[in-house]
Amino acid sequence: MKSSSFRSLQRSLAPVLPLLFGFVLGCSRNERTHKASDGASDSAAAFGPRADLLPSAAPSAPLPVVDGPALLEKIRQSGQKGVVVNIWASWCDPCREELPMLARVAPKFAAQGVPIWLVSVDDPESYAAAKGVLESLHIELPALAAAPPLQAFKQAMTPKWPGMIPVSFLFDKTGKLRYFWAGEVYEKELTPVVEGFIAGKAIDGVSDFGLAPGATKAGHE
Q: Is residue 68 situated within a structural domain?
């Protein structure tokens, strides 16, 4: 009887939870091709945190906190060709699984003018937990936390983003969104788009991995 009541409560809350928390966990994909390796921390350290690229934060803040417009302004002021912004959270398994891959490819992208920045959408009480996850994985990429309200942050990134995480965005030097990966992304899916952008190709669209595990659909504006 208790089990039946609990399932009924779960069903009644299911439509409400995404609205309450603002973000939903993206569809986790079947095969896992990117795993942490011994070289991941070395690659991350070669890039390292770039305090000059990030908003200032109070000394007591575990992560610098930034809202959407301020993040886009930082991208415009960075002097980079573009920036890949990865949105993640400490409680999101697929987010944590793709972090070592991002750390591994970051030095190559950064050397060509497209660094990777991480933005946590954890609650303010969990900023320290997010920082702890990065430290435990030896991830030394520039890392920030999204300022509440998260709905406003989502709108600033793009109204096309319904709120699943993980998600990654490619912005150009003007702060214009050029591409986004709506779900956990593999290196073989991220690299061609970023390298095409660096080469000056027309890169505008989205890869939606939320259709089904392993499915990819590309769209262009």
A: no
Domain membership of residue 192 as a residue range: 79-221
Number of domains in the chain: 1
Characterise 26 by phi-psi region: left (phi > 0), alpha (psi -120 to 50), beta (else). Answer: beta
Q: How far apart are CA 87 and CA 66, in angstroms?
A: 13
Q: Provide the CATH number for the domain around residue 109.
A: 3.40.30.10
pTM, two decimals, is 0.71
Strands 205-208 and 65-66: unpaired
- Secondary structure (3-state) at 5: helix
User: What confidence tier does 206 reach under pLDDT thresholds 50, 70, 90?
Assistant: low
3-class SS of residue 181: strand
Which residues have C-beta within 8 Å of that of residue 171, sequence separation ≥ 6? Answer: 72, 75, 82, 83, 85, 177, 178
HSE-up (13 A, CA, CB side) for residue 211: 10
Q: How many CB atoms lie within 10 A of CB 140?
A: 19
Q: Is residue 182 part of a domain?
A: yes
